[in-house]
């Protein structure tokens, strides 16, 4: 639909701006070095909508029940632009292995560096573990 295409276009533009600001902050002369990768029409960027219903039985996970959700992972792409819609559940792993909840905020986006950007920057910025 046109509403979804419009939303994707705006989120993609946000991603481009974030990548250009990151390049500038890293002192890279060509600030479009990363954003051009997602501006390209052949870019493999994608849009996904996930819905995870509340899981009050989360404490029962140890009992062997299968719960819906993503397990611990890193994102493979350049960056991920996530919107929580005021829904909690996302956690990031700090360098010491501690898991910290990302506070939900319906007015904000969560930008996560992906594995691809981490490799391009030779680990100057790291891809965080997520769950």
UniProtKB/TrEMBL annotation:
Q: Which SUPFAM superfamilies match?
A: Clavaminate synthase-like
InterPro entries in the cross-refs: IPNS-like_FE2OG_OXY, IPNS-like_sf, Iron_ascorbate_oxido_reductase, Oxoglu/Fe-dep_dioxygenase_dom
Gene3D superfamilies (UniProt xref): B-lactam Antibiotic, Isopenicillin N Synthase, Chain
Origin superkingdom = Eukaryota
What residues does the Fe2OG dioxygenase domain cover?
A: 42-131
Which protein are we looking at?
Fe2OG dioxygenase domain-containing protein
Origin organism is Opuntia streptacantha (Prickly pear cactus)
Upper lineage: Eukaryota, Viridiplantae, Streptophyta, Embryophyta, Tracheophyta
């Amino acid at each position: 639909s046109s509403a979804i295409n419009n939303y994707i276009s705006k989120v993609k533009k946000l991603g481009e701006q974030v990548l250009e600001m990151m390049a500038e902050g890293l002192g890279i002369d060509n600030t479009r070095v990363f954003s051009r990768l997602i501006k390209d029409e052949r870019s493999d960027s994608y849009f996904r909508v996930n819905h995870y219903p509340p899981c009050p039985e989360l404490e029962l996970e140890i009992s062997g029940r299968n719960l819906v959700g993503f397990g611990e992972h890193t994102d493979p792409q350049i960056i991920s632009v996530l919107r929580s819609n005021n829904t909690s559940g996302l956690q990031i792993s700090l360098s010491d292995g501690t898991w910290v909840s990302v506070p939900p905020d319906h007015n904000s986006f969560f930008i996560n560096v992906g594995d691809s950007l981490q490799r391009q920057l030779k680990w100057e910025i790291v891809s965080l573990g997520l769950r």
